[in-house]
Write a structure and sequence with these properties.
Blueprint (H helix, E strand, L loop, with lengths): L4 H4 L5 H14 L5 E2 L11 H12 L12 H15 L8 E4 L2 H12 L5 E6 L4 H8 L3 E6 L10 H7 L4 E7 L11 H14 L2 E5 L20 H6 E6 L12 E4 L2 H12 L7 H12 L3 H22 L14 E2 L4 H6 L5 H12 L1 E2 L1 E2 L9 E4 L4 H18 L1
Parallel strand pairs: 1-10, 3-4, 3-5, 5-6, 6-7
Antiparallel strand pairs: 2-8, 7-8, 9-12, 11-12
Helix pairs in contact: 3-11, 4-11, 5-6, 5-10, 7-8, 12-15
The protein binds pyridoxal-5'-phosphate.
The site of pyridoxal-5'-phosphate has 13 residues, from α5.
Protein name: Aminotransferase
Enzyme class: transferase
Family: Belongs to the class-I pyridoxal-phosphate-dependent aminotransferase family.
Length: about 400
């Protein structure tokens, strides 16, 4: 069957692929521990569930405005004021079917053929594909391990050309868990201002910070940076609402309006019930957000040392999100395997532990482990990996 050129090179999301493979093994009766998933393992808090049920009972089951319910936009504006100290008008906010959809719409409306988007590596798997789907060109900048996987202003400057339209900043980062400091953001921002480059600030892991780290949005640093930044956020990770599919983009009114128009001809609107649930998520108590964050931090602290003690594993301690991103090139070598992709395959086949290979994130010497699973499962998984390494070394 002939397909459009635009999707010919499209690869499936590595994360979803490994999760599906682990699930298939599980369904076939294997005792698989999946550390691939990028979603909190907690249920959505009760008051949010109740708001959704209430919305259904009240008949709020119809189309909504394409860019989202005014009441939800107001809650998002309020959240941005309280959490990030930035004022936005409802016309500068578009609610989408997940942050992924917000990013998709954004690249569709800001990129023309050949426009470049600077993507720091390691990157979240969907960024390059989404840029390419909008006829854009991903330009990679290496976030070096010795700089905690972060790019510097000098590196960014070096990659800017007449075609550069935007740079993506994802802090806290998926897959590394690293967080940019205020000073680093100021320096990156200076380069963007100088060259009039848009900043796509993906802040979806904002609420998951450890060791006393505080979230800083680059948009809050100055009015000029606010004007250049499109913030991407949502409730998937903060409120354990991955399946509800609510995310949003915030920033320049013209861009937001174009995104809303595009949504009106594709998805129409995010699910009405999920929008009402999100109003409750933002307007209601935030205790569950903190309880989940604290649970992730506890797991991180238990598992981090153990992981680093496995022969051939070397990992920097993450400051946010819920991923560990160890360098395992040495482990693959010790096991006599060709590369890390083969190592991941062997761990799944022999030890029934599912990790995501770093190749999908533009960092082939690494693997991503999600600690969004119980401590018992995590310890069990690390024991299995250690057992395997002890067997082969
Ligand atoms: N951005 C990053 C960095 C992510 O890791 C994810 C989800 O994995 C998303 C965006 C998309 O989140 P959502 O569930 O809101 O589409």
């Amino acid at each position: 069957m002939k397909l459009a050129k635009r999707v010919m090179t499209l690869t499936p999301s590595t994360t979803l692929e490994i999760t599906a493979k682990a699930k298939a093994l599980k369904d076939a009766g294997h005792d698989v521990i999946g550390l691939g998933a990028g979603e909190p393992d907690f249920n959505t808090p009760d008051h949010i569930l109740n708001a959704a049920k209430d919305a259904m009972d009240k008949g709020f089951t119809k189309y909504t405005p394409s860019g989202g319910l005014p009441a939800l936009k107001n809650e998002i504006a309020n959240k941005l004021k309280v959490d990030n100290n930035i004022e936005y008008k409802p016309s500068e906010i578009v609610v989408c079917s997940g942050a992924k959809h917000a990013l998709y719409l954004l690249f569709q409306v800001i990129l023309d053929e050949g426009d470049e988007v600077i993507i720091p590596t390691p990157y979240w798997v969907s960024y390059p594909e989404q840029v390419k789907l909008a006829d854009g060109v991903p330009v990679y900048v290496e976030g070096k391990e010795e700089n905690n996987f972060k790019i510097t202003a000098a590196q960014l400057k070096e990659k800017i050309t007449a075609k550069t339209r935007a740079v993506i900043i994802n802090s806290p980062s998926n897959p590394t868990g690293m967080v940019y400091t205020e000073q680093e953001l100021v320096e990156l921002g200076e380069v963007c201002k100088e060259h009039n480059v848009l900043i796509v600030s993906d802040e979806i892991y904002e609420k998951l910070l450890y060791d006393g780290n505080k979230h800083i949005s680059i948009a809050q640093l100055s009015p000029e940076l606010k004007d250049l930044t499109i913030i991407i956020n949502g409730v998937s990770k903060s409120h354990s609402m991955t399946g509800w599919r609510i995310g949003y983009a915030v920033g320049n009114e013209t861009i937001i309006k174009a995104m809303t128009n595009l949504a009106s001809h594709s998805t129409s609107n995010p699910t009405s019930i999920a929008q009402y649930a999100t109003i409750a998520a933002y307007a209601g108590p935030q205790d569950d957000v903190e309880t989940m964050r604290a649970a992730f931090e506890e797991r991180l602290n238990v598992i981090f040392e153990k992981l680093n003690n496995i022969p051939g594993f070397s990992c920097i301690k993450p400051q946010g999100a819920f991923y560990l991103f160890p360098n395992v090139s040495e482990a693959a070598k010790l096991a006599g395997l060709e590369d890390v992709d083969s190592f991941v395959k062997v761990l799944l086949d022999e030890e029934k532990v599912a990790l995501v290979p770093g190749s999908g994130f533009g960092a082939p010497n690494y693997v991503r482990l999600s600690y969004a699973t119980s401590l018992v499962q995590l310890e069990n998984a690390v024991d299995r990996i250690a057992k395997y390494m002890n067997k082969v070394t």
